[in-house]
UniProtKB/TrEMBL annotation:
<dbReference type="InterPro" id="IPR004305">
    <property type="entry name" value="Thiaminase-2/PQQC"/>
</dbReference>
<comment type="pathway">
    <text>Cofactor biosynthesis; thiamine diphosphate biosynthesis.</text>
</comment>
<keyword id="KW-0378">Hydrolase</keyword>
<dbReference type="InterPro" id="IPR050967">
    <property type="entry name" value="Thiamine_Salvage_TenA"/>
</dbReference>
<dbReference type="GO" id="GO:0050334">
    <property type="term" value="F:thiaminase activity"/>
</dbReference>
<dbReference type="GO" id="GO:0005829">
    <property type="term" value="C:cytosol"/>
</dbReference>
<protein>
    <recommendedName>
        <fullName>aminopyrimidine aminohydrolase</fullName>
        <ecNumber>3.5.99.2</ecNumber>
    </recommendedName>
</protein>
<dbReference type="GO" id="GO:0009228">
    <property type="term" value="P:thiamine biosynthetic process"/>
</dbReference>
<feature type="domain" description="Thiaminase-2/PQQC">
    <location>
        <begin position="12"/>
        <end position="218"/>
    </location>
</feature>
<comment type="similarity">
    <text>Belongs to the thiaminase-2 family.</text>
</comment>
<dbReference type="InterPro" id="IPR016084">
    <property type="entry name" value="Haem_Oase-like_multi-hlx"/>
</dbReference>
<keyword id="KW-1015">Disulfide bond</keyword>
<dbReference type="Pfam" id="PF03070">
    <property type="entry name" value="TENA_THI-4"/>
</dbReference>
<keyword id="KW-0784">Thiamine biosynthesis</keyword>
Length: 221
């Protein structure tokens, strides 16, 4: 049995926003096959821009893992995540071609810009390792939970969208998210009350940004 840590406690406490982030109408529409392709194209273009901004964020997590973590394996987990972003960017480019989305003309919407500004603030050297690890876990876990849902039994996910769902919904990504969660939990066990307050706040804010991010797909432009 997995030990219950702070993160599970916080997820229970903030269950409604967690569900809003992991079962958004856009994700549910992929799963039930009713998805509007212009929404998917909007998400694809916005997420490509997001992921480009996520790379320096993960790089800053990597630096903290090297400097502030007492465990040498933390660095390897984060490095694995950074390496998979390399494949991910290539994947986005192929999808862009497939769906006729020209990334060079995509304009970041407000929710995207705000999310990226939030990530930039977290990249400061002042932000404590347990706090950035909690944020990192939440960002990855929302995509893992959302896209895994599109592949669960009974799905009617359109075959041309299963590539996206497998990217984040596969078992390897699930295991990787668990590794990040275990790192975060270990750090939180030894954190001060002040750091715990900060980590919980950052967790909720990630979930809010993720909801706002999915919401952009409604615009469908
Ligand atoms: C808005 C958002 N959140 C999380 C992820 C998943 N991490 C890397 O790909 C993502 N692609 N986009």
């Amino acid at each position: 049995m997995e030990k219950r840590g702070m993160i599970d406690t916080w997820i229970d406490k903030h269950r409604s926003i967690y569900t809003a982030a992991t079962r958004h109408a856009f994700v549910v529409s992929i799963r039930d096959g009713s998805v509007d392709l212009s929404s998917f194209r909007t998400w694809l273009g916005q997420d490509y821009l997001f992921v480009r901004g996520f790379v320096p964020f993960v790089a800053s997590v990597l630096i903290k893992a090297c400097k502030d973590s007492g465990e040498s394996s933390d660095m390897e987990v984060v490095l694995g995540g950074l390496a998979s972003l390399n494949d991910e960017i290539e994947w986005f480019k192929k999808e862009g071609t497939k769906w006729d989305v020209d990334f060079s003309t995509v304009v970041p919407q407000n929710a995207n810009q705000e999310y990226r500004r939030f990530l930039e603030a977290l990249m400061s050297s002042e932000v404590k390792y347990p706090v950035i690890m909690t944020a990192f876990w939440a960002i990855e876990a929302v995509y893992q939970e959302s896209f895994a849902h599109c592949l669960e039994d009974g799905n009617k996910t359109p075959v041309e969208l299963t590539g996206a769902c497998h990217r984040w919904g596969n078992d390897g990504f699930k295991q990787y998210c668990l590794s990040v969660k275990n790192i975060a939990e270990r750090c939180l066990e030894n954190a001060s009350g002040e750091v715990l307050v900060e980590a919980e706040d950052v967790l909720v804010r990630v979930l809010e940004h993720e909801v706002a991010f999915w919401e952009m797909s409604r615009g469908g432009q």
